[in-house]
Amino acid sequence: MSSADNRAYKDFIDGLASLAASVAGARIRKGEPIFTGFADKNEKYNQLLSKLDSETREMVADLLDQAHSGGIHDSLAFLEAGNYRISHEGASLPHQPFGTELFFDFVSRREGDPWPE
Question: What is the pLDDT of residues 15-41, one digit of tens each?
Answer without folding.
Answer: 999 999 999 999 999 988 887 776 677
